[in-house]
Write a structure and sequence with these properties.
The chain contains 13 helices and 11 strands. It is of the alpha+beta class.
Length: 323
């Protein structure tokens, strides 16, 4: 274990508030007792207020005011760190090994009471990891490096129409995690405009030596949301109104798409302002899973479209059913 880690470990042990002997520290950290003395001398010289009490019941301890120094985490902070690490790993965050080492340090350098607290709260949260998606950890690590150092990246990305890979040079401005997916936002040299790219669709990625500057007035977050949820056009706007069970209406009002266009929300009733084309193409399929829990009040065209979609489904399943 590196020297700095050993000294940090000693600090964690001293933070327990109970006196601990050099022999106990040596056994806990598997160090030579002379090495422990040397580390304690180094810590004391650097300004850490270590109190040494000789005698049969003596040992080392810290002055109370140092126990709450920013170097240490309290119980709530420890719990939050463990939970955050679980969420990050589920999201495919590239620093999985680093997180694991950090969590091991957290567990190894605490006293018995703190360790019990950590184990209890670590078991209260479970994040279900999805299956079937390839690992993007290496891509995320390269992207983070490129964004931090303002270095362009060379990528291969499939064209939407035929799926064939296309070589591009990108100036990556920001990596964004949204709706369980990772995206990179940046300037595409091929198209000469800002674009967003799904990280899991990258076929290859290479960090180049070419540097760039991020425009000061550019907001990657705003760009991403504006492209995801375009502003309503000046014409062809229509009111979309539904009623139903309050919990179902709440769920629809929180939907990532509909929430952006919500105009009015009452108990069992909601009004949205949408492009007419959206209402008659996207919305019917969005509403189908809710069955009879909701009812479309307006527009009439959406009511007719729902009937058409249901009739097509019914016809399809009837014609394909076994005799």
């Amino acid at each position: 274990m590196p020297t700095i880690d050993n000294m940090l470990a000693i600090l964690w042990l001293l933070r327990s508030g109970e006196k601990i002997t050099a022999q106990q520290i040596a056994e806990k950290l598997e160090l030579n007792i002379r090495t422990v003395y040397r580390y304690i001398d180094t810590l004391s010289t650097s300004g850490v207020p270590i109190v040494s009490e000789p005698g049969h019941h003596g040992g080392y301890s810290l002055l109370d005011h140092f126990k709450e120094a920013p170097l240490f985490f309290d119980a709530e902070e420890q719990t939050s760190l463990i939970h955050a690490a679980r969420f990050a790993q589920e999201a495919g965050y590239y620093g999985g090994d680093s997180l694991q080492r950090a969590m091991e340090k957290l567990r190894n350098y605490v006293n018995e009471k703190q360790e019990k607290h950590i184990n209890i709260h670590a078991s209260t949260l479970e994040v279900m990891k999805g299956h079937g998606s390839h690992s993007i950890e290496s891509s995320l690590k390269d992207l983070e490096t490129a964004v931090a150092k303002c270095l362009s990246i060379a990528i291969q990305y499939p064209v939407r129409d035929n799926g064939q890979p296309l070589d591009r040079m990108i100036d990556p401005y920001k990596v964004i995690f949204w709706n369980s997916r990772w995206y990179v936002i940046g300037f595409c040299h091929l198209r000469q405009e800002n674009r967003s790219f799904r990280v899991d669709r990258l076929i290859s990625l290479t960090v180049t030596d070419h540097s760039f500057s991020v425009p000061q007035d550019f907001s990657p977050q705003d760009f991403f949301m504006e492209n995801l949820l375009p502003a309503l056009p000046s014409e062809g706007i229509e009111t979309f109104c539904i009623e139903g069970k309050p919990k179902v209406i709440d769920d629809l009002c929180r939907h990532w798409f509909l929430n952006h266009y919500l105009q009015k929300r009452e108990d069992g009733h909601a009004v949205f302002l949408l492009d007419k084309e959206m209402i008659n193409t996207f919305v019917p399929y969005l509403l189908l899973p809710y069955g009879t829990s909701i009812r479309v009040i307006a527009p009439k065209s959406l009511q007719k479209k729902l009937i058409e979609v249901l009739s097509e489904l019914l016809h399809f399943h009837q014609s394909s059913s076994l005799p």
